[in-house]
Amino acid sequence: MAYYSSTRDFVALSDLHPNLARPNVIGVVIGKTDVRGFPDRKNIGSERYTFGFTIRDSPTYFINVSSWGREEYIRSLSESFRVGDCVTIENPLVQSKEGEREEKFNPVTPSCYKLLLSENHSVVKTSSCYEMDTKLLSLSHLPVKDPQDYYSLGDIVANGQSLDGRILNVLAAVMSVGEPKYFMTSDKRKGQRCEVKLYDETEMSFPIICWDNESIQLAQSWIPRKTVIFAADVRINFDKFRNCMTATVISKTIITTNPETAEANVLFSFIKESAQSGAMHDKMEEQSKESVNLETIVNVYTVKQLKEKALQSDGKLEPVFGIIYGYISTLDIDDNVSKVIRNRCSICRFVVNEMSNTCTFCGDISSNSESTFASFDILVNLTDHTGTLYSCYLSDCVAEETLGCTVHEFLTLTEDKKTALKWQLLLERSKIYFKITLSPSWRTGLKVNILSCKLADPTEASQSLLGKRKRLNHVD
């Protein structure tokens, strides 16, 4: 059902078809591309200009619109509205989409059709917000993809180069918005670039890059540490120069600012709680042994039991403390050091800016050595005979005890010694104390903090496993 008042004869986007005569449609603009020029094959030496946008009139329906024509007309039309505006379109041409070719460079839409605007026959008007039904305006806050279909930033970093070139969805908060930078391309066209830093519960600094004016203008409206975005169909790449993963806004991308979803609300709560506590993400205190008395943790679980417990919780699982007798199945400590060690602010314990080595949260902290400290921040996989828990946190003093060395000692190790250390720990049966919480922003839905990880006593592990089997058999 389309969201608008029936004061005019508008056709719902879902009802459009090529045989419909002179339709009028209305919708909120949810995506828009820059104006581009192409050589005109009919008039050698001249150019035709084009730009595209996407409009939506209901939670489930949106359609792509393209316009071709003279430079003056196209630029004037493009400048008449922005993402988030409500527009009416009179007499567009309804055309069938060209399948996969169409959606390779344009946003994926549920419609079988697209709209084409003609300079001589079509009219686009911006409608005042006061004239529109508020339900229509609210559509700009609904993601165009399943709200649960996204990667956390930590999951992207953990997967690394295996995601290079993939098109993914991202839900994250805005940490900072860089100043647009302008340049001239080799063919003397004007170019621009803007880098935005994102963060979530799993990763505190992740770059997303905008190359077009429309996304740059949208980014300039975002408020650091207050805005959340759902970016549908961004391209993930490995930046060889910076040796890190990045996201890029492309022509397929549709960004929803401050989405109204349950998953976004969790992230909003995280932002608010982080700001109130005076630190962006204090995982280290949360994981430190001083905050949890391990002697009070006695319940033993299998991976399968934990996943079932989470599924049965209906999204209301209280933090679970327990023990797993299993082993570390992934431990990439001999890979990139930046994936193992992070510098943190001595005051707020937030990850500091890699380039300036200063805290982006405290702002005025100096960059001397006393202002920051290095700490382990490692993602590992935990496995037992029933399954695997992915991307578990092994950090700070717990990581030092597990690895048997401090951060500074680790940094002096050769690559061969780091690899040898890894294989001392991998696949060795261990007694692992953990804390698990539900986290929709984490790709697996479960956030696992390791509180202790030491080699297990074989007798103790066998007795625990045997006792668990007896209890299960007794229940059966």
TrEMBL record:
Pfam families (alphabetical): OB_MEIOB_N (PF24903)
Main location class: nucleus
Gene Ontology CC: one annotated term: nucleus
UniProt keyword Translocase, yes or no: no
GO molecular function, one term: single-stranded DNA 3'-5' DNA exonuclease activity
Residue ranges of the TM segments: none
Annotated MEIOB-like N-terminal domain residues: 8-145
Keywords: Chromosome, Cytoplasm, DNA-binding, Exonuclease, Hydrolase, Meiosis, Nuclease, Nucleus
Localization annotation: Chromosome; Cytoplasm; Nucleus
One Gene Ontology term from the biological process aspect of the record: resolution of meiotic recombination intermediates
InterPro entries per UniProt: MEIOB (IPR052469), NA-bd_OB-fold (IPR012340), OB_MEIOB_N (IPR056880)
Binding partners and assembly: Component of a multiprotein complex with RPA2 and SPATA22. Interacts with SPATA22. Interacts with the complex BRME1:HSF2BP:BRCA2.
Stated family: Belongs to the MEIOB family.
Summary of the function given for this chain in its UniProt record: Single-stranded DNA-binding protein required for homologous recombination in meiosis I. Required for double strand breaks (DSBs) repair and crossover formation and promotion of faithful and complete synapsis. Not required for the initial loading of recombinases but required to maintain a proper number of RAD51 and DMC1 foci after the zygotene stage. May act by ensuring the stabilization of recombinases, which is required for successful homology search and meiotic recombination. Displays Single-stranded DNA 3'-5' exonuclease activity in vitro.
Protein name: Meiosis-specific with OB domain-containing protein
UniProt gene name: MEIOB
